[in-house]
Each structure stands twice: as C-alpha cells, then as structure tokens.
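Hi again,

Forgot to attach this to my earlier email, sorry! This is the prediction with nicotinamide-adenine-dinucleotide bound. I've pasted everything inline since the attachment limit keeps bouncing my files.
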Amino acid sequence: MGKRTSENVLLNIALKNFYGAAEELGLEDSLVEILGNSERKLSVSVPVVMDDGTTKVFNGYRIQHSTAIGPAKGGTRFHPDVNLDECEALGMLMTWKCSLAGIPYGGGKGGVECDPLQMSKGEKERLSRTYAARIEPLIGTWIDAPGPDVNTGGQEMIWFMDTISKIRGKVEPALFTGKPVGLWGSEGRVEATGLGVATCALEFLKAIKKDPKGTTFVIQGFGNVGTHAALTLVNAGATVVGISDITGAYYCPKGIDIKKAQQHASAHPKKLLEGFEQPGLEKIPAEELLLLEADILIPAALEGVVNKDNADKVKVKYIVEAANGPITPDADAILDAKGVLIVPDFLANSGGVIGSYFEWAQNLGGFFWTREEYNSRLLHIMKGNFKRVWDFSQERHVKMRRAAFMAAIARVAEAARLRGIFL
Ligand code: NAD
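Structure tokens for the complex follow:
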C-alpha cells in the first residue's frame, strides 16, 4: 500500500505529521503501514423525516483508526463539511491524543454532514437517533465509545444513549460520554477541554517564565472550548483582547469582560456573541482576529484557519491550538521560520478526552466523583503531559508538535508490537 496522501486538507496534514514523526522515530515499515490506515471506516445513510413532511437522507460516518491501546474514542460532529476523510484525519489525531494523554483508549471519530443550525429540535433528535441506530452494530463500551464534538453536546449524547439502550434492552451509560450531569454525566466535563487548554497555556507561560498577568490572548471561537479557556485564563490574571464566533470578531485592547460575554452568549437563542457590547469594544472583520497584536493566539473554532495565506501576517509570539488542526503544515513552516512557538492541538485540547475517560470510568464503576476530584485529577494529568512534551522537545531540540507526535506514536507502536498484527 505504501505511504498515503489525500486531497482532503486535514487528512493530508494528519498523514504528513504521522509519517514525519514515524521516520524520526525509526518506526518499522509494517507499523508505518498499519498506523497510516484506519482499522474500520463506516459510512451510513441517515434518513430523517423533516418537519415539513419530506424525507431527507444525510451522510453519516464513524471511523475507528486504532484500537491497539484500547477501545476507540472520539467525538461526533454535526456540520455541513463533515466527510469520511475528515473523520479519518480526526480519528487518527484521537489515537495520538489518547496515547499522549496516557489513557487506555485508541482513536475514533464520527459525524453527520448536516447543518444543525437550520434544523428544529425534533429534526435533530430524529437525525441523532437514526445515526446512532445505524452505527450501533460497530460501537460498544469496550469497542468504540463516541462523545460530542462541534454542534453536538449533552442532548445528542442522551438521544444516542437512549436509542442504543432501547435497541440492546439494557442501559448503556459508558458507551457515550459528554452526557449531562444527573444523567450519568460528570461534574466538570463541560469545562474540561477549555480548562485543559488554559492549563497548557499557563504551564507554557511558566516554562518560558512569563507571568499570566500582563499576558494578552486572542481566542477564535467562543463555543464550549473557547469560552471555558477564556474564563480560566482571565481568572489566572491574563487579559483576553479578542474573541470571535460565526457572527464576527470583537476586539478591546484593554481586555474583554469574558464573564459578561459568556452571559450574553448563554442568553442568545443560538448561543452567539451577536449584539455583544462593552465600553471600548470594537467589531472587526472576522479574518482580522487572527492577525491581532497579542502574546498568545488560541484558535478554538475549526481546522485550517491559519494557512499559507495569512500565516506571515500573524503577529503573536505563541499559539496554543484548541481546535483540531487549526494550522496547516505550510503555515506551520512559515510560523516556525518567524519563531512562533506552538503548543499542539492533541496536547492542548486533550482535557476533553481525559474528561471523557473520567466519565467512562465513573459510569463503569457506578460511582460519581465530586467536581473537585475531577478537576484536580485533570489538572494533574494535563500538567504532567505538558511537562513530558516540553522536556522532550527541549532535550531533543524538536518542536513541541514533533515531540508530542513522537511520544504518542511510540506508545501506540509499542502496544501494537506487544499485541501483534493478527487482526
Ligand atoms: P462549539 O460548537 O461549542 O464552538 C465552536 C465555536 O466556533 C462557536 O462559537 C462558533 O460560532 C465558532 N466558529 C465556527 N466557525 C467559525 C469561524 N469561521 N470563525 C470564528 N468562529 C467560528 O465547539 P467546541 O466544542 O468549542 O469545539 C471547538 C474546537 O475544539 C473544534 O475544533 C473541536 O474539534 C475542538 N475540540 C473540542 C472538544 C470538546 O470537548 N468540545 C475537545 C477537543 C477538541
């Protein structure tokens, strides 16, 4: 089969990063071939009766990239751009993320090509239930346990869980993570990814001996991850000067009142920043947000937003990747030449999957932890993982992204070697 390339930007990035790190690690050809491919790729059609009585058929996917370390784990995205290649790229990234995080999971990912912002609650429920039923034969608590991603959350996870539980005739709580508190979800999960991103940013500041107070941040995307990262950073004394969502970008050099922005978005019918105001706040063109003057940029929206067209205009010194794959390889090279240091996505945003692991473990044990226990375990793991990657990158004189890939791939490769390649 040999080395693969893909027309899909995200999959091509994932493959390039994997092959580059595998070569540097001296990984044997057989494992390069095995880990450069997904174990399973599932495509399903998802028929939904719409509110107007017509039936629409959506495309759905589920990828299991690797189960060498443990059951596949990864989110479910509802977005018009979802496709099989994108899911494969994100599934591969989940394998490395779980490996790097030191949790007992492989990597998977899924999604449905749809525009949930244009759908009613009833349409979304029917879509979620039919998607869950269609992927049911290939998922399981010890096989592949999906979670939420862009445009899915607690409600969708409950529709998924309820559907599978009814099909199987028993409650299947650990099969889906990201469930609401009170319905097998755990205190702390909603904030986990953003808290983890902010923890990485703060550990990074510690490593470069810079005080959070006086450090300025720009955050693209004010959804689940962006909001909780921003709140944690502001609580640590940092200043967030720019935020954005699909309604536009908002800039205030003196600092945005993040609590107020969060309250505004929570009260908005679509959870958006549209109409947000505070003294000194300026609405700027969305593309200018990434080019603002600040110390640290946190892209927390979608992939590929920093690319060859805008990378040379980026003014920050540091980037902490909250979204998956927000920087294209071309842009990575441009930023590297400019001396911009990057904390890579699968380290920075691993708080989400570590939180999912906590939820899964609690569901299996039937015993819930307090928010304090949850957060202290999360911070402990995130800080340890950051330090491992930082020290490795300093010792080996490689970028943090390469260091993280090498450490993650080495663990998966070791598991695959020990287990053998029978299946
Ligand atoms: P979300 O849907 O809650 O929020 C996404 C935000 O990005 C929204 O505010 C949306 O308006 C904004 N956005 C979308 N397109 C934009 C654009 N072109 N410009 C500016 N803003 C835009 O999603 P989320 O859960 O916060 O996830 C954000 C990113 O983090 C995704 O890449 C996701 O894969 C990644 N991630 C999420 C988790 C998690 O636990 N939620 C875990 C790991 C990684």
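The mean pLDDT is 96. The chain is about 45% helix and 15% strand.

That should be everything now.

G.
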